[in-house]
Amino acid sequence: MREEFKFLLSVPIFGDLDEMDLEKIANLGSIKKYRKGNIIVMEQEAGASLFIIITGKVKVVRIDHDGREVILTILGSGDFFGEMSLLDGLERSATVVANSKAELFIIHRTEFLDVLHEFPQIATSLLAELTRRLRRADAQIKSLSLKDASGRVANALLMVADDNGMFRKGAVEIDELPLQQDLANMAGTSRETVSRMLHQFVRSGHISLNGNRLTIHNYEAFHKEFR
Asked: Which domain does 99 fall in, by range?
């Protein structure tokens, strides 16, 4: 496999394929680079491609009628997006924006559907990932509708921890905590509230902060109390 496509080895939905099969998939797509702030896909536009993140991070957002941004999730290397429109042929359900410099592998709908037919194990992995995302969305809806400010901010931290945290002996370390405004947009609250809740969690011993590195000292206890 060519060096520039070695990233496919770490994409979970391709986990059951060997290098020869991955080489076939690599030859079907192309690589494109985006700068921070670039819009990659727009909500309600026609969806014709699957995107796999090689490097960098992107945020998946919805914009309300007042122009306020709600972040549904932040994705990083090895993650993918755009699969819903490929499967049902409908419009994009959200906008995706580069949250840093990002390099993406893009495969168009026709080729991706051919891949699903040739490698049905990818479809099984894709269903598992869609189910995980649905459960996550349910938790986020519950947080936004039922929880107070501390619960919303804690849920946002847990989402980041689940996606990007390093689990060690019951604790979780997040090396690159999103900006407080991004956390606020995930939690449906203000940046000031996020700052206040983070300091509250520090004082209560739930977390520690060192620059943009955050540690949840007891993940299970934090999860049980706030989610």
From this structure: 3-141
What are 145-179's pLDDT values in tens digits?
878 999 999 999 999 999 889 999 999 999 999 99
Q: Give the alpha-carbon dihedral of 44, 49, 50, 56, to 10 degrees.
A: -80
Asked if residue 97 has pLDDT above 90, the reply is yes
Question: What CATH number is associated with residue 193?
Answer: 1.10.10.10
Choosing from 94, 126, 141, the residue where a domain stops is 141
Angle at alpha carbon of residue 139, lines to 137 and 140, rounded to 5°: 65
Per-position b or e across 40-70, b if 16+ CB within 10 A of its CB:
bbeeeeebbbbbbbbebbbbbbeeeeeeebb
CATH number where 115 lies: 2.60.120.10
Banded model confidence at residue 1, pLDDT cuts 50, 70, 90: low
Q: Which amino acid is at 93?
A: S
141 and 172 Cβ atoms separated by less than 8 Å: no
131/203 same-domain check: no
Same domain, 66 and 133: yes
SS3 assignment, position 90: coil
- Which tens digits make up the pLDDT trace of 18-74? 889 999 999 999 999 999 999 999 998 988 899 999 999 999 999 877 778 889 999
> What is the value of pTM for the model shown?
0.85
